[in-house]
Amino acid sequence: MEQEEAITAVVRIRPAHPSEDKIEFCLTATTTGISMPAPRQNSPSSNFTFSAVYGPRHSEGTLYDAHIAPLVASFVDGYNACVMAFGQTGSGKTYTMSQIVPLAITDIFQRLQSTKDSEVKMSHLEVYNEALRDLLHPLNEEPLVIREDSYNSNIIVHGLEPDLIYTAEEAMACVRRGNAQRITAATALNDISSRSHSIITMHLRRGNETFSKFHFIDLAGSERNKRTKNTGIRFKESVGINSGLLALQNVLRALSRNLRRQVGHVPFRQSKLTRILQDSLGGNSRTVFIGCVAPTKADADETLRTLQYTSQAMCIRNHPTLNIDESLQVLEEDRGGPPPREDHQTNTQQTEYIKELERKLHRANVDLQKDEIIFAQKMREIRELKKANSQLRTQLREKTCKVGLQTCNALLAQRYENCHDIVLPFGLDFPLHPCYDKVDAVVSASMACPSCSDLQHEMAYYKHTVNILRQQMKTLIIEHDRLVSFQGENRVV
Fold it and tell me: Do 294 and 421 fall within a single domain?
């Protein structure tokens, strides 16, 4: 059933940094309002009223219990939900969301413990310079396209691959994996500044009855180049961030005017960020808008702008609707009533069977990753064995050849020690006799000593001996290779 309700707008004031003097504070806050003195002469002071204001002494747990926990309950019941943080760079948006997301994930899975037919999926999307990137699958080359589902009019990102989640620990692992891929950089105002908008989405389906989604949106902070001192690629990123936030501000302004019956065009298509947020702003969702501000006088202009747009968000009316699977309703209408009990049991059994298959597939993927790691280790061991085998073969070949050739040359040198012009027939890498100043691998008949008529016969005999040694060496090498190969196969198994 469709209903109308306002967006919950709260303000989070970050603590002051040690370098910020308390004298420079520019805010006066109450539990539901903020007052700011005139930032310039001849300009009026500003007073704002919100759903709640949380100062530096309040914890994120207090904010969660008051505003986010009801969203989680609605999400489990089948309503779309959204919580987003808006503000200038360095105002504490990422820190606030990093505290809220784990609390919400834990709460969601605790509420789902009593539900049997529930399926949870999670995706993590980044909007960087008007380009969409899947942070959970960064190597996915499929282009991401924003479309409107003709079946239920929800905004979807075609090509985005959600991961199936079974526990809160797995969900937090996905969050950490996505945050590790998010683009950050240092600026003059923030050592770890987010250079993109981050959208974590949890999808819930409860059997064949209801489905819902929960957006956790950490917007990149608005930047003034005069203070951030960005240059080069950082400056281009600032332009992209401010362009997306400007489109969001135009949407907030247009929707707040519609509340005053000044119906007009809402520029959701002005940027990809606002197109994705179309359901959460004035659509089918329950939304909490957190304006994060800094209390110091140096940030007065940006703080005033954040408070203005947070106040405008509070004027927006959403239309949350219980998301019921219409295909089941059509089936009931065709049958003239609710399906028989047997068919419902059959559908429940099929759903449980599908979920069991998905669990097995998940476990199989985990086992496959472990097997791939073991396989890589075994391949490294095989490469090491091959390297050792090659070294052993080289050593064996050199040792066998040197022993055989050294023996032959020594016998020749001993027999013909008076022949000073002889060239050894078997070359080594060093001379074996003082009278030999050159080593060759072939016989030079022209340099042979003429006084030794039977030298060639002796050389032929020793060549034959060397050939026999070479055959024995080949046999040893073959046997050595067979033993090493057998040992490697045993290790792989």
Answer: no
Q: Which residues form the domain of 483?
A: 380-492
Asked whether residue 164 falls in the same domain as residue 51, the answer is yes
Nearby residues of 340 by Cβ (< 8 Å), 6 or more positions away: none
Closest listed residue to residue 128, CA positions, set 231, 234, 225, 269: 234
pLDDT at 150 over 80: no
- Grade residue 226 by pLDDT with cuts at 50, 70 and 90: confident
pTM of the model: 0.65
Compute the half-sphere exposure of residue 304: CA atoms within 13 Å on the CB side of its CA: 16
**159 lies in the same domain as 209:** yes
374 is a domain residue: no
**pLDDT over 50 (residue 265):** yes
State how far the Cα of 196 lies from the Cα of 125, in Å rounded to an integer.
10
Query: How many other C-beta atoms are found inside a 10 Å radius of the C-beta of residue 85?
Result: 24
Residue 122, pLDDT > 60, answer yes
Chain-centre distance for alpha carbon 473: 56
DSSP codes of every residue in 242-263: HHHHHHHHHHHHHHHHHHTT--
d(CA 84, CA 248): 12
Residues 223 and 284 in one domain: yes
Residues 37 and 94 both lie in one domain: yes
